[in-house]
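To: structure subgroup
Subject: Chain for Friday's discussion

All,

I'm putting the inputs and outputs inline so they're searchable in the archive.
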Amino acid sequence: MVVDFPNVMSKFIMFGMPLSQIIACATVNAARVFPSFDDRGTLNVGAPADAAILQLRHGSFEFLDNYKGTRTGRQRLFPAGTVLAGKQVERAVSDEMREVIEDLWPELAHKLPPRKP
């Protein structure tokens, strides 16, 4: 089951694929498939400065497949930031998610970005 792209990438870690190969498959190799993206998937000088910043966490993580089967992995990638055109993009937090965080983890609420008008 696809939850998000870092979750999909994490499943490959669980299956034993090296992280460097996973990142290559998700970036430069994927960009090679589409001619219009030939300047993407790289951090070369002159290429668009777009990047997903991921954090590799260690622990026990459950992964769900399309048939509702589960497997447990010891590492998982989590989104930590985004850079578009060389500028860091502030993470958006929906009002619904903000309420969940404020209710369950009030000690973290002060770390949320300010509400958008």
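Points worth raising on Friday:
The CA atoms of residues 37 and 98 lie 35 Å apart.
The domain at 5-85 is CATH 2.30.40 (Urease, subunit C; domain 1).

D.
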